């Protein structure tokens, strides 16, 4: 019964005191007007209290495992409070692993608790409502923010300060919280999950790089990448293009490790057979790059790192990107 809330730091936990002084999960919950009135028992767990840029895959995996146990013990849903900077990556990672119908809802704040119009309390209230909403079951990981509900696999932080920072560029929110009622408007179908028991030592040793193509990019950062990394995500221009001279460099890398092609634009899909110039999507896919589909570069990197850590070779990686991309 009730909700298990895991607190992982972020703006929602900034106390206004010393830099390393943070509000606890209990402090955060206590500051939410109307939370007690919901009648939802809360089991609050403090995991880490850090800026979200310092969270790791292992932290997220630990929370997913603890959350799985909480659901097995009867929790109706899960809420995670964390910093917004990496929330989209953490949410997508959870979504790839979460095996329960119980909603797993991530939230945070754009304004610190002591600021005028702090948004943390409203976001936590909405997240708890979503976590216990029958309509939100079976949707995997969700992000509740600004009274909107976003599917983890589509959402992204799109603004550095706005309280409406989370958007889902290709799909829009899957739901809204209106007068406290959770309205789910779209139900994205669940896709194949990845194993939760990834070996932690192997995961820590699995490095996946992200390279963003830029104007007049000479590509020298790639020269010895295969010596240090097990995979690469390329954030290409537009529909998945890079400067012509980078195409053979990426092709050589693709012969040594999975290289996934995505778009740096933040919306839409990479294409597969529309342009033919050197450095175009057709050229790059022909050289062995893997089509990242509609996944943005950050999500593609999450998926690729998990796959590489589980020992997936190119064919399995390509198949997973067909599923998730
Ligand atoms: N927005 C930052 C984050 O994502 C907050 C940094 C902090 O909590 O100090 O965590």
From TrEMBL:
Keyword line:
Hydrolase
CDD domains, per the entry:
L-asparaginase_II
Active site annotation, chain numbering: 11
> Where does the Asparaginase/glutaminase C-terminal domain start and stop, copy by copy?
207-321
Q: Name one GO biological process term.
A: asparagine metabolic process
Protein family per UniProt: Belongs to the asparaginase 1 family.
- What is the name of the protein in this document? L-asparaginase
Q: Which organism is it from?
A: Streptomyces cinnamoneus
Give residues annotated as binding substrate. 52, 84-85
């Amino acid at each position: 019964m009730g909700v298990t809330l895991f607190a992982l730091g972020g703006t929602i936990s900034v106390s206004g005191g010393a830099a390393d002084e943070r509000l606890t999960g209990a402090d955060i919950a206590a500051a939410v007007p109307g939370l007690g009135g919901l009648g939802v028992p809360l089991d609050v767990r403090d995991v880490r209290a850090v800026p979200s840029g310092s969270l790791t895959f292992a932290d997220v995996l630990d929370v997913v495992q603890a959350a799985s146990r909480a659901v097995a013990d009867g929790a109706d849903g899960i809420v995670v409070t964390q910093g917004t900077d990496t929330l989209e990556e953490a949410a997508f990672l959870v979504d790839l692993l979460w095996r329960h119908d119980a909603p797993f809802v991530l939230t945070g704040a754009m304004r610190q608790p002591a600021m005028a119009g702090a948004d943390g309390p409203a976001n936590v209230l909405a997240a708890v409502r979503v976590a216990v909403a029958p309509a939100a079951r079976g949707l995997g990981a969700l992000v509740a923010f600004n009274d909107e509900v976003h599917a983890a696999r589509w959402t992204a932080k799109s603004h550095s300060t706005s309280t409406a920072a989370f958007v889902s560029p290709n799909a829009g929110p899957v739901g809204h919280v209106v007068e406290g009622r959770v309205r789910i408007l779209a139900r994205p179908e669940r896709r194949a999950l990845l194993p939760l028991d990834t070996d932690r030592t192997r995961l820590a040793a699995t490095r996946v790089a992200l390279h963003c193509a830029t104007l007049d990019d000479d590509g020298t950062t790639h020269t010895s990448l295969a010596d240090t990394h097990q995979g690469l995500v390329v954030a290409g221009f537009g529909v998945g293009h890079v400067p012509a001279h980078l195409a053979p460099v990426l092709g050589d890398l693709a012969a040594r490790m999975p290289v996934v092609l995505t778009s740096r634009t933040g919306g839409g899909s990479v294409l597969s057979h529309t342009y033919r110039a050197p450095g175009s999507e057709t050229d790059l896919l022909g050289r062995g790059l893997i089509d990242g589909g509609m996944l943005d570069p950050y999500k593609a990197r999450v998926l690729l790192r998990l796959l590489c850590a589980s020992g997936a070779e190119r064919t399995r990686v390509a198949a997973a990107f067909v599923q998730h991309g």
